[in-house]
Amino acid sequence: MKEIGVGIAITGSGSATPANVLDNQALCQMVETSDEWIESRTGIQSRRLASVTESLTELATQAAFKAVAMSGIQPTDLDLIVLATSTADDLFGSASKIQANLGATGAVAFDLTAACSGFLFGFVTAAQFIRTGVYKNVLVIGADVLSRWVDWGDRRTCILFGDGAGAVVMQANTTRDRLLGFELCSDGTQNDCLTLAFQPQEKALTPTLSVGQGTYQFIQMNGKEVYRFAVKRVPEVIEKALYRADIDVDRVDWLLLHQANQRILDAVAVRLKIPTHKVLGNLANYGNTSAASIPIALDEAVREGKIKPGDVIAAAGFGAGLTWGSAIFEWG
User: Fold this and answer.
1) I need a surface site. Which of 56, 106, 213, 229 has the fewest CB within 10 A?
2) Catalytic site residues?
3) pLDDT (tens digit per residue) in 218-264
4) Calpha distance 332→90 (Å, rounded)
5) With contact defined as beta carbons under 8 Å apart, do 216 and 197 qualify?
6) Which H or E element spans position 7?
7) Three-state DSSP class for 41?
8) CA geometry: angle 125, 295, 237, nearest 5 deg
9) DSSP one-letter string for 99-145
């Protein structure tokens, strides 16, 4: 591992999920499906759903406080907050509201959107600010409330998604760089495989001028194409990140994938020859929480004592865009 002037340490994690649980049995009362069908095809048993009064900002703030506390710093020590989300409470963004809730008066805050890859894209983006010496203490949050945009009458999609938030604190480290390698990718030619699209309706302002006003539509997904994309591209991008990190897959202690579908997780692990006991997952309990899935699974593994300081983690996110990416890092 090469030493550089300013490296990165990942020193804290936190997560938060709504109290409301929708299990497969209850879902079967809403749409024509079965618990066996859902679990056998996705690995999901239940998902957490935000209530009408529960906001993305609230969940993200809870996760952030926990991550900051674990890191041993104060919110006022934060220089930057990056919120990865596709479901902000305000279309102008929610990061600044989280900054205010935390009392992180010295931090600049902005939203970043890359759907289910969002946390990983935010993680790598934050790392560049640290490596250049601009910021020392950065909070990266992945949070989504996809239940707002799910068609609960569409059994192809409503079985998949849940709500939640996860966060990590990244700090400057002058002795070694614990972000060992990364690779990020996008392919807009496949954009229509997974969308949450705006649908304009014409509103005439004058006899000769109209604008488009409307709202966003429900999530639309071509499940077969997304599955095909993930099982091919995710192992590739992890291998590229490992190459950039100059380490063998045998040195990986934990495989941490976006929690989308158990069959995808299994296929990627087999392709990389990573044994099952090294694969982190909580898909059964939360479903696909989009940008929140990686940091929630990371936080749970850290707090359960599975992940220990110095452990090498190969993380990969993939989703709408289509976007995908991997980061290889040491915890602690």
Assistant:
1) 213
2) 116, 258, 288
3) 999 999 999 999 999 999 999 999 999 999 999 999 999 999 999 99
4) 34
5) yes
6) strand 7-16
7) helix
8) 60
9) HHHHT-TT-EEEEE--GGGHHHHHHHHHHHHHHTTS-SEEEEEEEEE
